Amino acid sequence: MKKSKRLSPASTSLFQAILQIKNLPEARKFFRDLLSQQEIIEFSNRWKAAQMLDKKISFEKIQAATGMSPNTVARINKW
């Protein structure tokens, strides 16, 4: 069965809450309340990989810089 691409109400609410963040200290507090330290690190690495992909950096260099698997980098590249 194909997964729906529609966002759940909870996801929509989360994204709306993120849009209300006004500054870096508020963002830190928001994400620390929601995520563990390890989850923040993993989320940050995904963001780093997305930025590197945008700069056309090779998958191999991204994997070396982030420690991500080829599958994870490929999944991020779909954005």
Automatic annotation (TrEMBL):
Q: Which organism is it from?
A: Candidatus Falkowbacteria bacterium RIFOXYC2_FULL_48_21
Pfam families reported for this sequence = Trp_repressor
Recorded GO molecular functions are: DNA-binding transcription factor activity; sequence-specific DNA binding
Q: Which domain of life is it from?
A: Bacteria
Name under which the protein is recorded = TrpR like protein, YerC/YecD
Q: Per the UniProt record, which residue ranges are transmembrane? A: none
Query: Do you know which InterPro entries this protein is assigned to?
Result: Trp_repress, Trp_repressor/repl_initiator, TrpR-like_sf, YecD_YerC
